[in-house]
Amino acid sequence: MTAVDLTLSERRARPAGRANWLTVPVILGLIVCAGWLVIALTIPLWSPYDPLATSGLPLLPPGAQHLLGTDALGRDVLARTLYGARASLPLAFAVIAGGVTIGCLLGGLAGFFGGWPDGILMRLTDVTLAFPAILLAMVMTAALGPGLFHAGIAMVIVWWPIYARLLRAQILSVKEQAHVEAAVAAGVGRSRLMRVHILPLAITPVLVNATMDLGQVVLLAAGLSFIGLGANPPTPEWGLMINDGTIHFYQWWVALGPGLAILSLVLAFNFVGDGVRDLLDVRTPGRSP
Amino acid sequence: MTAAGAAGPAFSAGPPLLEIRDLAIDFGPPEEPLPAVRGVDLTVRQGMTLGIVGESGSGKSLSMLSVVSLLPATARVTGSIRLEGREVRGISGRELRKIRGAKVGMIFQDPMTSLNPVFTVGDQVGEAIRTHDPGLSRRAARARAIELLADVSIPKPAERAGSYPFELSGGMRQRVMIAIAIANNPALLIADEPTTALDVTIQAQILELLKRLVDERDVGLIVISHDLGVVAGVVDRVAVMYAGRIVEDAPVDDLFAAPRHPYTRALLGCLPRLDRPQAALTPIPGAPPALAAVHEGCSFRTRCGFRQPRCDHEDPVLMTVGRSQAACLFADQIDVAPATADGVAP
Fold this sequence. Notes:
The complex is a heterodimer.
Chain A: H1 3-11, H2 14-19, H3 24-46, H4 77-113, H5 115-129, H6 133-144, H7 148-175, H8 178-185, H9 190-202, H10 204-226, H11 238-247, H12 253-280
Helix pairs in contact in A: 3-4, 3-12, 4-5, 4-7, 4-10, 4-12, 5-7, 6-7, 7-9, 7-10, 10-11, 10-12, 11-12
Chain B: E1 16-27, E2 34-45, E3 49-54, H1 60-65, E4 76-83, E5 86-87, H2 93-99, E6 104-107, H3 121-132, H4 138-151, H5 157-160, H6 170-182, E7 188-192, H7 200-217, E8 220-225, H8 228-232, E9 237-242, E10 245-251, H9 252-257, H10 262-269, E11 319-321, E12 324-326
Parallel strand pairs in B: 3-8, 3-9, 6-7, 7-8
Antiparallel strand pairs in B: 1-2, 1-4, 4-5, 9-10, 10-12, 11-12
């Protein structure tokens, strides 16, 4: 009776569909991310050099002793680069976690209830989005003193409205989908409707964006440090190190380490973000072979 | 106007399951209402199947969505909708949820989008059960869901219960939708264009399944369709809607053999038939009137081949002719010969 249906559904069996998200860039991204994570966690255990102490002559070019050379104060660039992950990674995760939490809470309320809470929250996001991150970071630094933590707070403040708007828009569109009406017709209550039928579908792009934004936070943090609004010297931080590199322009290795570090981490986060999207979005066409 | 109740012993068994009286649905500002449904009367009894047929915008879906209050918030509903003798119009949200799914099961047109894409179909059938029986354990709901999937003729139901909707074909998904609709043994099933999105071969299977469920479970079934051919094989009785009204209500055999309303005749003329050689199909000229149009006289008259001077001024009400009822001033004079939709005035 249903031979056609059956072959169709068997051809699309789940294992084949699930394996699809693990593409080469995604695997590479995961490896790089995992590598940086391991480095950030274990570097004090095995680093041959202290990132804060002079360990050789100043501005030594890369060589056997110092794989990426030394900076103007004779500190090992490689060690400082690897230690830099201990500043950037936790900051990136904290900023995204804070932004996603606040954004989802407010965006979820706005999307689900609509009406005046929606109006107020959305105007609030408009105002916040109109505020440049750098300006806000400057204000924070002026008020609280420079430091990575304060830069992080400034970044959370500029980041949450993105997630709030995204989630709200998603909820509004998912709310209109036929399966939500079907669930209402089946007698499903309001809170369950939100938790089971709307939120799991609406949250996907937020999670994808959050993964990709990890890289953006790393970039912005480095940028803020670069212009003196983030980490304080002598903290090993990538933006600060690149700033050092601008003074010693012909000693290219001073900026090479942190530059490569930022490049690799941002790329890796973006690749992983693509993977997360393919993994989470059941509606991505062409997922099943 | 006891529409479906009066005729034939087959239709009058048991008390009425659903009684709609003088239902009207308006949209737009109250000063200038846009009437989408006007004066609809319907009765459905246990074990009885009713087809509601009409063009897009004739009000067929709106009428049925109003039974479970699924209309958009801007709709204004008047009239009476009684389910098992109890008025359901204007009841609280909590009461409404006890009806939705438990007393009235809905089957929607598009099985591709009417299932939640992120849960397995087994979970979704299980959810339908647990929504109205919260005390039931997950495991018991799962077992019951698998039984239901078997009931709707899904092969290897235990395996399929673990499938996500995207892994199933359209016909399979529609079966899952039907399993969800019957999960709580509702007394009434409403299928809104249940086969429109499906292949013809699958259509026949789904209609066969609906028919079997009505026989086995003794439920009332309403099939909404724009396709007379679809309802012909499934239902006992057909209500034809035009411009927000029921224009003809008749046992299915009578409707096909001797349509009493010119619109029904015209609809049959649009239907390709194998048993009667016919040079060409006859489309109905013109288009249905706009909602806002001023209604004086018969709303079908501008497209009617039988138009008479009286039609311009008199608003036809349902007239009983034999076992049929038709809202045409000349329902009793229209030739009883099988419709060939020649559309010629008598």
